[in-house]
């Protein structure tokens, strides 16, 4: 039996911020960085624990709802912030600011809507501290 002090217990926030696997919190979820010209490609399996990221066909469609919440929060914040800072009632100012900032945040929204879906909103998907070690023992070549 593993002593408590030896047992690995990775924290959830660094795993979310660094877009890591929800099961082992070590393996990458995306093949490329968020802001890359190569696009954002979700890996099929976790390279550390072998977890299949797309648990069922259409699993990531649910991330649209998380992304929608992100967009609404960003737009409301931008609108209120623009009004407080400028006091303007010109709709083109608001439209220009909102469209440009939301365009810049699109890769962020894409990535973290999927990460939050996997880490928090998927029933039955939990952190398993020794998932990576068990997978590496059973698949020594990978
Ligand atoms: Zn993993």
Description:
The chain has 142 residues and is mainly alpha-helical. The protein has one domain (12-138). The chain has helices at residues 12-17, 63-86, 91-120, 131-138. Helix 2 runs antiparallel to helix 3. The structure holds zinc ion. The site of zinc ion has 9 residues, from loops.
The largest β sheet comes out as: none
Q: Which consecutive residue ranges, at least 5 long each, have pLDDT under 50? A: none
Number of strands: 0
What is bound: which ligands? zinc ion
Mean pLDDT reading? 91
Number of helices: 4
Summed up, the domain count is: 1
H/E element string? Answer: HHHH
User: Which class of secondary structure composition applies to the elements?
Assistant: mainly alpha
Tertiary shape: elongated
Report helical residue fraction.
40-55%
Span from first to last CA? 26 Å
Instruction: Provide the gyration radius in Å.
Output: 19 Å
User: Strand portion, in percent?
Assistant: under 5%
